[in-house]
Amino acid sequence: MTGERTELVEKCRRYWHEAGISRDAVDSMATELESHLQEASADGRDPRSVIGDSLPAFAADWAAELRPPGRGMPSWTVMERQLALRSSSRVLAWVSGAAAVVLGVVIVLTWGKESVMDNEILRWVWTGVALLMGLGEIITAGFFLLPFAVGAGLAAAAAWFNMHDSVQWVLFFAGTGVAMLFVHRFMRGQDQEEGLIIGPGRYVGMRALVLEKIDMSSNTGLVRVEAEEWRAVTDGGPIAEGALVEVTEVRGTRLAVSEIE
Prior knowledge:
The chain is of the alpha+beta class. The chain contains eight helices and five strands; from the N terminus they run H-H-H-H-H-H-H-H-E-E-E-E-E. It has a five-stranded mixed β-barrel with strand order 1-2-3-5-4. A hairpin with a 2-residue loop joins strand 4 (about 245-250) and strand 5 (about 255-260). The longest helix is centred in the middle third of the chain and has 35 residues, at about 75-110.
């Protein structure tokens, strides 16, 4: 339970930081949330008794009160992808740095000398690595293996043209590094197109699924639009769970909807 509580708090903390809330305010909010979750746990209650059914909606509701004027709400999905991209970028930077040092040593030791490995073997090794990385990229579709496939492909081409193995290593690391830069730029461009700061106004006119009965008298209502969950209100009568609705406008941190006849 402690691990789950810590994970929930850290997710909210990261989201609030991306929303532009000051560090002191984020620390205060996280401490308060931790306290509420501890109290719920001591009373034998589920964390949902504090955060509701949607953690993104809960974090957005709280952040909306403190975010800088004129700044929209971050998309929870894009925020998580940005954080993952930053983490992988740091790992890649360390790996690339270590690889560059190793490569420099290899070039110094082998420059002007005969290949330390039979080129016939290297041809098939590089070709196999390129195919394996390419296949892995097709299966995972995460763009992580693609740069290695490109680097191995360049090294394989050099091997088939009987170039020195030090040249093959140079092409592998250089090709992988350049491909990583292009992939990183592409991923950042994708996120910017979606907009890290995405206005919920884009949901107006879209259809949504009612996850929790929308009833103004009991102040309930939750819908899923695209991949996100939002608190919802309606100007008409109650709308039952499972109904399809259309988003008509944005009211603060809630979506105003009308039932589709």
